[in-house]
Amino acid sequence: MKQVWKGLLITVITFIASTIASGGFAGTALAWETLGITTLGTVLIYLAQSFAFPSTSIIGELNLKDLAKGAFVTLGNFFSAYTASTVTTGHVDWKSLFISAGSVFAMYILKQLGTTVPPTQTK
Fold it and tell me: pLDDT of the chain along its 123 residues, tens only?
C-alpha cells in the first residue's frame, strides 16, 4: 500500500513540475497529451526504480543511493517529456524539458527527506 501512496505522490510531483515547465495548464488537446505521456512515463520509471531499489535512508537524511535514484527518475522524466513532445508536436522545447527534469529532481529529493524507512531497513 505504501508503494501506491508514493506512486500517487510522484504523479502529483511530476504533474506539477511539467505544468510549471510548460508555463501553466495546457490549453490544447496536444498539450494535455504531452503532459499525460510525460507524467505516465515518469511514474512508471519511478515505480520501477522504487521496486528494484527500496529506500534505505533514515528520515531527514540522504545517501548516495537516494541521489542516484533521483537522477534515474529525472532521466526518466527527461526522456518521457522528450518523447511526448516529439510524438505529439514534433517540436522539443529544451528549456521546458530541463525545467521539468530539474523540478522533478528537486521534488524527489524533498520527498525522500520526508519519507520514513521501515524499521527492518534502518541503519
Answer: 566 676 677 777 777 776 666 555 556 666 778 888 888 888 888 888 888 887 776 766 778 888 888 899 899 989 998 998 898 888 888 888 888 888 888 888 887 776 665 555 554
Q: With beta carbons less than 8 A apart as the criterion, state whether 115 and 5 touch.
A: no
Integer Cα distance of 46 and 25 in angstroms: 23
Q: Look at residues 117, 1, 119 and name the one whose alpha carbon lies nearest to residue 59.
A: 117
Contact 74, 98 (CB under 8 A): no
d(CA 61, CA 45): 23
Helix and strand counts by DSSP (H, E) for the chain: 4, 0
Among 30, 21, 19, 11, residue whose Cα is nearest residue 87:
30
Rounded CA-CA distance 102/73 in Å is 11
Q: How big is the CA angle at 113 (ends 123 and 15), to the nearest 5 degrees? A: 135
Q: Are 61 and 116 in contact (CB under 8 A)?
A: no
